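step=predict obj=Tapasin-related protein n=472
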Amino acid sequence: MGAGQGWCLLLCLALSRVAADPEERQWRKVDVVLDCFLVEEDRHPGSLAGSRTTVEALLVLRQVPVLDDGSLEAFTDFQGGTLAKDNPPVTFEASVNLVQIPQAEALLHADCNGKEVSCEISHYFLQATKKASFIANVQVPGGGPSVSMVMKVLRDAENGAVLHPTLKLPLSPQGMVQTAVELQVTTQTPLLNFLLGSSASLHCGFSVAPGLDLTGVEWRLQHKGHGQLVYSWTTGQRQAKREGASLESEQLLLAGDASLTLPSLTLKDEGTYICQITTSLYQAQQIVQLHVQASPKVQLSLTNKALPPTLICNIAGYYPLDVTVTWIREEPGGAPVPVSGASFSSLRQSTAGTYSVSSFLKAEPGPEGTTYTCQVTHISLEEPLRSTAWVAPPEQKTAFGVLLASSLFLLTLLFLGLQRWPGTNKSRDHFLCQHTHLSSREDHTAHVSQPSGLTQHQTREGKQPPTLAPPQ
């Protein structure tokens, strides 16, 4: 267990004991301790260019204001003496007096919520100053906040000062590299999902130490190997490359809000957005992944071109590509049963980039009719989308056909019998006239009784489905 994990374990035990009313919570300054990795460029002779090595490190954010619910009374500050004597991790002590860390509470409680914070520290090289600096990138997994912090080393090497064996930087008496955070850039939502045609707000906040000037804000989009400028801001100038893109008002921008608004999303807006904050001395950025989704539309129909009849489920206008189609069959009084054996058409793509596909299933209605459901599951749907129809049993038409054939057979026998009797031509002609009129009416009734097809029925909760009568 690392030093940071042990420190967070003590915090979790304290949090489990007290739970105060949210309205009674007050601000309190605490130390936030994070297990990290220090990334260093390999400068040894013969090493490959760009190769890196990582070593264990510890980041101690000193006296960060967080909301206290009463459970932090017994929580003490971090002491360097608690570090292991043998092979201790590289420890960075960072003061946050010059900037704000708005996501500190999420970092403090991440371990208690079963989330392991990702933390990576690397050198930050400055051309304008000889001061050593580092940048720490911290992220809470599962869509939690992400923070990038530029840290300036405070202590200069003095005669007799203890230097870190590899970093060659002066250490405090507690064996820590003392730094101060001078720029932080954060996003509350590193992963976003929005529906096609809606408006999206991409959060990007920042805090700058006094004495540093904000000189520029830039949003760029990276997607499928291509990059493009979306929006840029410099002192007194704005430029929107994407139509309708906008930043917050200048007052909010200067107060630390560089969030980007994108109206009327299209599939071309999908990708990785980079929010880059530039000051007179430093530069840092945050990444926001934006996924655009389109919900499918489902329509169920019946084709009368083959026996047995075929049900067609059309799924149109969805994005992204992955979609699941399930057929369900249910007879009166029975339980719904999944049906296999469905086939699919080739995939179709519209000019807007959305997809469509059709699924085909041979209908096998029971003696009392059968309900068929086409169920579609897609990432854009909170619950599966269903289209349901009732297919009439084939016996309804078969019984009518047998009755009609039997009637015609009996009438034929009667007609042949009447021909044997002389002098009955008039009566026979009168009878044949009546029979012809009756037969014509029966044929007309059989024709109009044929179903006109399927009336589409689409529901999420299940209502009385329409009736489908299979052809004979």
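step=describe
The chain has four domains: 1-184, 189-292, 297-392+451-468, 395-448.
step=end
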